[in-house]
Amino acid sequence: MLIGLLEDDLAIQELLRILLQGEGYEVAIYTSAAECLADLRVDDPRSGLLMPDLLFIDLHLSRSISGSTVIERIRANPRLNPLPIILMTASTSLEKQELARLQVTLLTKPFDIDDVTRLIDQMTLSPPKGR
After folding, report:
1. How far apart are the C-alpha atoms of 131 and 127, rounded to whole Å?
2. CA 59 to CA 38: how far, in whole Å?
3. What are the residues facing 55 on neighbouring strands?
4. Whole-prediction pTM value?
5. Which CATH number belongs to the domain containing residue 112 in this structure?
6. Which of 41, 27, 24 has its CA nearest to residue 127?
7. Which of 7, 13, 29, 44 gives 20 to 30 Å between its CA and that of 63?
C-alpha cells in the first residue's frame, strides 16, 4: 500500500516515514503542496503514475497554501474524491462540519503511534503483511 505524506515539518515527516515504512507501507513524501497536487494530477482527469491509497496532509503548511485548500483541490477532481485523507493538526478549533465538508479524518498532534496505525487500518481495511 502506498501512503502519501504532505508534511513540511521535517521532524514529523521523518517520524511518520520511519513509522509507516516500519509497518510495511510504501511512503511518497511531498515536500510542498504544489508537489503533492502535481503528483496527484488534480487538474487532469487521468490518473498519475503512482496513486496513493491514503494521504496524510498537515493543515498548516508554511510557505504555501493551507492543507485544507490542498484537500479542496483534491476533492474537486471526481477521480480523487474517494481518496481517504487524514488531516493532521495541533489545532483544537476545527469543527465537525469542516471535517465533514473536507471528507477527512482528524489526527491531532501530538499523536500516538498506535493512533496512526489504527486510523490507517480503519480507513483502508487492509493492514500490511506481517501484522
Report:
1. 7
2. 18
3. 4, 85
4. 0.88
5. 3.40.50.2300
6. 24
7. 44
